[in-house]
Amino acid sequence: MTKPIVLDELIARIRVHIGNARKSRSARAALDTTGRYLFAVNGAGRIVWSTPQANRLLALAEAAEDGDQKLPAALSRWLSARQDGRSDLAPLKLEAVGGALSIAFVGRADRDEILLRVTEESGADHAAVFREKLGVTARESEVLLWIARGKSNRDIADILGMSPRTVNKHLEQIYVKLGVENRAGATAVAVRHMG
Question: How many whole angstroms separate alpha carbon 164 and alpha carbon 161?
Fold first, then answer.
C-alpha cells in the first residue's frame, strides 16, 4: 500500500487475506479428512505446507529435524531426479517408526511448489498373505490391499505409481483368481484373509 494509507482500502485487503487463509485452511482440512495425506515442498527442499495427518506421518520418518521443515536427504535426492525430467520414478519408500512410508508425486501446485502424497506402508505382511494364500502376483496383492482399505482406482494408481487403466487390468485378473465377480467380492475375500 502507498502512503497516505486509506483505512477502507487497508480493511478491505485484510478481509481478503483472512478469507484466503480460511479457504486454504479449510481445503487442507478437507483433504486430510478424506484420507488424502498431502504436503507441498518448494525447490529449496523445505516443506511449505502439509495436512495434519501428513504432518503426523512425516514426523514418524523424522522429516523435520529440530522443528525445521527440511526434507530427509533421500526425499531431496528423489525430488531432484524428478526435476531433472525423469517421469518414470516409482514412489519413494522411507523408513519410519513402526513401518515405512511411501511418498508419491502428485503434481505441481505452483511454479515453486511440488505436491506430494504420503501413505503408511503397514500392509506389507497382508500383501504377502495375499500372494501366498490367494495366488496373486506381488502387484495384484498391492492392488488388493488398497481395495480392502477402501481406496478408489485413481487413488490406488497414485499410490502405486501406475495408471488407473493398469489398476483395472490388475482387478480383472484378481476377480478371475479369486472367483468373484466384482470389487465388493474381492474386498470381502481380502478382508477375510487380513483377519
Answer: 9
- 36-120 CATH, one of 3.30.450.20, 2.40.10.170, 3.40.1050.10, 3.40.30.10: 3.30.450.20
Q: Which helix (DSSP H) or strand (DSSP E) does residue 74 occupy? A: helix 73-83
7-32 residues labelled b (16+ CB within 10 A) or e (exposed): eeeeeeeeeeeeeeeeeeeeebeebb
Cis link prior to 4 (omega < 30° from 0)?
A: yes
Helix, strand, coil tally for the chain in percent (to 5) = 55, 20, 30
pLDDT at residue 145 tops 80: yes
Residue among 67, 66, 65 at smallest CA distance from 75 = 65
CA distance 175 to 167: 12
Query: Do residues 143 and 167 lie in contact, with contact meaning Cβ atoms separated by under 8 Å?
Result: yes
Q: φ and ψ at 98, to 5 degrees?
A: 80, 15
CATH fold group of domain 124-194: Arc Repressor Mutant, subunit A (1.10.10)
pLDDT in tens, 41-77: 887 778 888 877 787 777 777 654 444 556 777 788 8
Tell me which residue has cell 523424522: 62
Closest CA to 50 of 16, 75, 86: 75
